[in-house]
Q: What sequence folds into this?
């Protein structure tokens, strides 16, 4: 699959039929294949075109023994290497009738083109160095995006995204490797280019950065394409009421159908939310999952030991939900203490609940809401939306498939750096440290595709649709 010498063709538009359909070709023979079928208005022949051009005209082709078909067509031609694939490429924009487009592709295949494999145009762009592997995945992310957030994430990744922090890390490690290897060349002369302390110190920094990226990727892979907003706070603070009010006002219909289930149980006794509940919020063009974390409902006849076990299970469940959260809503009311830790930017919002009971209380950096009167609910929804948008616009945010693929490489790179660090602190020899550094570089190279195997390319490109 991984060769780019022949000319490939595919329908690039939806198979459902539309006013306009596109047939795309890439490869050395595009002009020879299409030229005889296309007559441009004004008589230009495409073999004489040397710059990327846009030509109107007519396309005439036939699948013998059928009579020839003539279609109006706009032809986009990249005769040299300034195309997406960096090969000569043509797009034929014509009527979007699927049987007609299939007949056209069939004609081109009989003239010598080959039907493209899924993702093969993007694969060629990657092989030609036009985009890196994470950007190729971003192309898929753009195609598959269901909402603005997914689209923004994919577009950011397409524009560089993960590639930038990755390049920085790779260049730091390459620099370190160069210094280590320079030292090895002069080992007999007793010239030291870099001290062991310095090596250890730089390795610790790299390890830290890798750890952060790994964490980010793990969270990203786990949450898939969903952003999670989790309600957190002591029992009875009003979380379930807030969950119901937010979903009542901003819940998407699909969430209720797909069973975000029943409204959360609201009760005056402490600890009445039995499990965690989820529902989909639609905030403008952004959708996220709202989660009401676990509490416990323990009947009075439950023995104390069992009650304790249930409490612990509920707390573990809540902790797990918090771990997955893109954003936590830390709830407190006038009976509960003001949360001590100030929120980290982007990860938490402080929410003062039951504001109707204490309307005078205005706290800096805190959003006051009442589930009874509805005051502050719109402000809270807007704050959630803003935080989530900021979160997904962070430079290292990636599409879910990249996160899954990169997880292993990051873990292996960090393990190699850890071994290098242990060697450095145990005076284990620069040669071995250099070898481990090279291992780490090899793994990081896989993320952007500087190092790739057929297996990696297969995994990335097989999930594309044909024509992309
Ligand atoms: P949770 O345990 O944190 O989920 O809290 P609940 O949502 O079950 O609410 C606990 C109690 O506080 C219930 O009696 C609610 O009716 C009451 N409550 C919740 N929100 C408000 C509010 O905004 N104003 C007032 N006055 N009472 C509220």
A:
């Amino acid at each position: 699959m991984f060769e780019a010498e022949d000319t490939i063709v595919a329908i690039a538009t939806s198979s459902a039929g539309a006013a306009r359909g596109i047939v795309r070709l890439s490869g050395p023979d595009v002009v020879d294949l299409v030229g005889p079928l296309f007559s441009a208005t004004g008589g230009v022949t495409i073999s004489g075109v040397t710059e990327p051009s846009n030509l109107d005209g007519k396309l005439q082709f036939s699948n013998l023994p059928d009579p020839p078909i003539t279609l109006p067509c706009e032809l986009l031609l990249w005769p040299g290497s300034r195309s997406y694939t960096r090969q000569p490429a043509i797009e034929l924009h014509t009527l979007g009738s699927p049987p007609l487009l299939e007949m056209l592709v069939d004609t081109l295949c009989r003239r010598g083109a080959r039907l493209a494999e899924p993702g093969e145009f993007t694969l060629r762009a990657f092989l030609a160095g036009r985009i890196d592997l994470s950007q190729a995945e971003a192309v898929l992310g753009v195609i598959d995006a269901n909402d603005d957030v997914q689209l923004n994430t994919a577009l950011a990744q397409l524009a560089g995204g993960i590639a930038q922090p990755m390049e920085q890390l790779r260049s730091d490690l390459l620099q370190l490797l160069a210094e280590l290897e320079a030292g090895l060349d002069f080992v007999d002369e007793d010239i030291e280019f870099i001290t062991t302390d310095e090596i250890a110190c730089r390795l610790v920094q790299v390890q830290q950065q890798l750890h952060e990226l790994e964490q980010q990727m793990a969270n990203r892979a786990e949450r898939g394409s969903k952003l999670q907003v989790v309600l957190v706070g002591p029992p009875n603070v009003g979380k379930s009421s807030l969950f119901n009010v937010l979903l009542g006002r901003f819940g998407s219909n699909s969430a209720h159908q797909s069973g975000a289930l029943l409204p959360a149980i609201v009760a005056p006794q402490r600890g009445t939310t039995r499990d965690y509940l989820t529902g989909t919020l639609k905030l403008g063009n952004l959708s996220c999952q709202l989660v009401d974390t676990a509490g416990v409902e323990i009947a009075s006849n439950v023995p104390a030991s069992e009650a304790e076990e249930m409490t612990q299970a509920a707390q573990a469940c809540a902790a797990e939900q918090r771990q997955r959260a893109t954003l936590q809503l830390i709830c407190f009311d006038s009976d509960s203490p003001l949360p001590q830790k100030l929120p980290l930017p982007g990860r938490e919002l402080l929410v003062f609940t039951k504001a109707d009971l204490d309307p005078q209380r205005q706290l800096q950096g805190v959003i006051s809401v009442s589930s009874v009167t509805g005051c502050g609910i719109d402000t809270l929804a807007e704050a959630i939306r803003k935080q989530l948008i900021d979160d997904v616009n962070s430079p290292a945010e990636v599409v879910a498939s990249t996160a899954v693929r990169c997880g292993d490489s990051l873990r292996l790179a960090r393990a190699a750096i850890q071994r290098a660090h242990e060697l450095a602190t145990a005076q284990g020899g620069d040669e071995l440290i250099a070898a481990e550094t090279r291992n780490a570089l090899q793994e990081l190279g896989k993320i952007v595709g500087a190092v790739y195997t057929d297996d990696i390319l297969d995994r990335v490109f097989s999930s594309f649709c044909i024509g992309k």
In short: The two ends are 15 Å apart (CA to CA).
